[in-house]
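Give me the fold.
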Amino acid sequence: MTVATDPVAVAPAKSRFRLSWPWILLGIAGILVVMSLLRIVTGVDDLDSSGTIRATLIAAVPIGLAGLGGLWSERAGVVNIGLEGMMMLGTFGAGYFGYFYGPWQGVVGAILLGAAGGLLHAVATVYFGVDHIVSGVAINIIAAGAVQYLAGMAFTGVPGGGQTQSPPIDRLPSITISGLSEPLGEIERENWFVVSDAAAVLRALVTNMSVLTIIALALFVATWWLLWRTAFGLRLRSVGESPAAAESLGVNVYRYKFIAVITSGGLAGLAGGFLALVAANAFRDGQTGGRGYIGLAAMIFGNWRPGGLFAGSMLFGYTDTLRLRGGGETVHALLLLVAVFLVLLALWQWRQHGRRSALIAAVLGVVVAGIYMVSDQVPNELATMTPYLTTLLVLAVFSQNLRMPAADGKIYRKGSAG
C-alpha cells in the first residue's frame, strides 16, 4: 500500500551576485560621475587630477603589496601580523642592495629580506606551533631593532648616509607615452564634466609610471590566477579552510603553509622596497609608517580577495594622498563624498537586512555630514589622521559581511587528520 504525499516546496536558491566586466565598467563610470560632481560642488579641482591619481597609486601600491602578502598567508591559515616588520626588512634590503649594487638588485634584496622574515614566521607558527599573533608581534619588534643595527653598520660614514638613512639610490625606469599624455593633459585642463576626469585618470596611467608599479599591479592579477584558477591554488586554499581534510587527500599541509608564508614575506618586503625605491629614493628608518597594518586592514576589507584588496588599498592610498597634497581644505571636500557614500551604504545594507550595519553607516553619515556643514576646513591634526580613521570606518561598516578562511589562525599539527 502506498501513501501519496504532497510534494515538498523547495525555496529557490538565491542567485549570487557575480562581479563581471560590465559591472566593473559601470562602477568606474559611476565613480567618475560622483567625483566630477564633487569637484564642481566643492570647487577643489585637485580631488581627481592626474597628479592626485598618480600619487594615489604610489601611496596605494605598498599598502596593496603588504595586503597581498597577508592574503597569501591567511589563505593558507596563518595570520601574519608581522607584515610591518617584513616591510621594514624590505626597506633596508632595497636601501643596501640598491645603493651598493643598483636599483634592480635593491628590488631583489627587498624581496629576499622580506622572505627571510616570512620564513622565520613560518618556522615559528607552522613547525613549532607558536601563536600567530605572538610570532608576528615578535617579528615586528625584532625587525625594527635589526634594521636600525644593520643600517648603522652599512651606512655610517658613507657620504650622504647615516645610522637612520642610506645615501640616494638610483631610480628605477619609468614609462611615459607622450603621444597620449599631452593630449589627455589638454582635455584635463578644460574641466569638462566627467570627460576631463576620465582624461585625468588615463593620463596618470601613461605618465611617469614606474616599472615597479606595473609589476605590482601585475602581481594582483597573478595572485588571482594562481590561487583561484590553478590546482596549486586550490590546494593552498584548502589548507586554510580545513587542513585535516586537505591532508587526508594527500596534500602536504606544512609545505603549502611554508610556501604561502614565505611568499607573504617576499611580497611585504617588496612593499618596503617600493617605499625606498619609488616613493622615495633612499632608505629611511621608520619609513613604513604603519602601512603593514593598513595593508592588513585593506585585505580584510577586500574579504581576503585580490580585487577587494586592490579597492581597499586605493581607498586608503587616496585618503593619504589628499592629506599630503591638499591638507585640511581637500580633506574637508572629501567629507561630503564620505557622507553621501555612508547614507547610500546604509540604504543598501537595510535592503540586505543588515540592520546593525545600516544603523552604523547611517549614524556615521549624519555625523560626517554635520562636520562638513559646520566647518570650512578640517584641522591639520585631523587631516593627518585621515588614513587611520578611514581604516577604522571601513572595518566598522563592512565587518558584518566578511568571511575569513575557516582555519585562519588555528594551530595545526601534522597527522591530526587521522
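Confidence is low (pLDDT under 50) at residues 8-15.
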